[in-house]
Write a structure and sequence with these properties.
Layout: E1 4-9, H1 24-33, E2 39-45, E3 47-50, E4 53-56, H2 59-71, E5 76-79
Parallel strand pairs: 1-2, 2-5
Antiparallel strand pairs: 3-4
Length: about 90
């Protein structure tokens, strides 16, 4: 009984739906907040800006964010950056 569930999600998970619906990340957090035997935390994967370019996170950066979330949970931890949205890698 009890435990921590860390869900790793892509950057688009924080975007609201086309008609203003809650984001997938918000929907999941709300649904799992009512589970009595678990604590729930999210890691949202962003990107890294390097000068005029950007790149997705590498395995080490993703793992470090997940480990940090397990060691010191926050409701939502952003790995990398999510802004500006138009600067994300294509």
């Amino acid at each position: 009984p009890g435990g921590l569930l860390v869900e790793v999600m892509g950057s688009r998970s924080i975007l609201a739906g086309p008609k203003g619906e809650p984001s997938i990340a918000s929907f999941r957090a709300e649904a799992l907040a009512h589970q009595p035997d678990i604590s729930y935390a999210q890691v949202v994967l962003g990107f890294v800006r390097e000068g005029q370019t950007s790149r997705w996170l590498n395995h080490e950066e993703i793992s470090a964010a997940a480990i940090a979330q397990m060691e010191m949970p926050l409701p939502r931890r952003i790995a990398g950056t999510l802004e500006p949205w138009d600067a994300r890698p294509r």
